């Protein structure tokens, strides 16, 4: 979690039940009327986004061979563009089924960071250059 905090990347760690176990300071600053933690679970004002997040968590947690990353989930906000949530399983952290952290959710605020850097995409998701180009294009299309 220290690497996310040092880079200023908002991140939340979840356990095998999708319960919040750790929130870094940049993520805490995002919490408010549009995104919050309640009962150790992430919640948001947009019900459709909350359902999409829940489905993404289930894909990552319940599949025998889960993907490393699922599609980003846009979280609608009252002021500004949607916040983008990127649920992922980091291979070095989540390979042990008994490890407390099973999912890391990174948040991108397009009002602050309109375009993800290539380095960020490679680092976060271990992407090959073609995949990284695709994800960068997808992200720009969402904005």
In brief:
The chain is of the alpha+beta class.
Helical segment count: 6
What fraction strand?
15-25%
Distance between the termini: 27 Å
Average predicted local confidence, pLDDT: 83
Q: Assign a percent range to the helix content.
A: 25-40%
Radius of gyration from the alpha-carbon trace, in angstroms? 14 Å
Principal-axis shape equals globular
| Sheet with the most strands: spatial strand order | 2-1-7-6-5
Give unreliable regions as ranges.
none
Helix/strand-derived class? alpha+beta
Largest sheet: 5 strands, antiparallel
Total strand segments? 7
Order of helices and strands: HEEHEEHEEHEHH
What would you note in describing this structure?
This protein is α+β, with helices and mostly antiparallel strands. The protein is built from six helices and seven strands. It has helices spanning 2-7, 25-30, 47-62, 91-94, 118-125, 129-142, and strands at residues 11-14, 20-23, 35-38, 41-44, 73-75, 83-88, 103-108. The strands form two sheets. Strands 2-1-7-6-5 form a five-stranded antiparallel β-sheet. The chain has a two-stranded antiparallel sheet with strand order 3-4. A hairpin with a 7-residue loop joins strand 5 (73-75) and strand 6. The radius of gyration is 14 Å and the shape is globular. The two termini are 27 Å apart.
Give the arrangement of secondary structure elements.
Blueprint: H1 2-7, E1 11-14, E2 20-23, H2 25-30, E3 35-38, E4 41-44, H3 47-62, E5 73-75, E6 83-88, H4 91-94, E7 103-108, H5 118-125, H6 129-142
Antiparallel strand pairs: 1-2, 1-7, 3-4, 5-6, 6-7
């Amino acid at each position: 979690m220290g690497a996310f905090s040092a880079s200023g990347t908002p991140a939340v760690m979840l356990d095998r039940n999708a319960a919040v176990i750790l929130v870094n300071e940049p993520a805490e600053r995002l919490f408010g009327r549009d995104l919050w933690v309640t009962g150790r679970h992430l919640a948001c004002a947009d019900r459709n986004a909350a359902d999409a997040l829940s489905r993404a968590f289930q894909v990552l947690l319940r599949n025998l061979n889960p993907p490393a990353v699922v599609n980003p989930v846009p979280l609608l906000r009252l002021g500004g563009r949607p916040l983008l949530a990127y649920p992922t399983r980091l291979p070095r952290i989540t390979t042990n089924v008994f490890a407390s952290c099973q999912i890391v959710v990174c948040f991108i605020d397009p009002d602050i960071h309109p375009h993800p850097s290539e380095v960020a995409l490679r680092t976060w998701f271990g992407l090959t250059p073609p995949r990284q180009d695709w994800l960068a294009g997808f992200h720009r299309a969402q904005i």
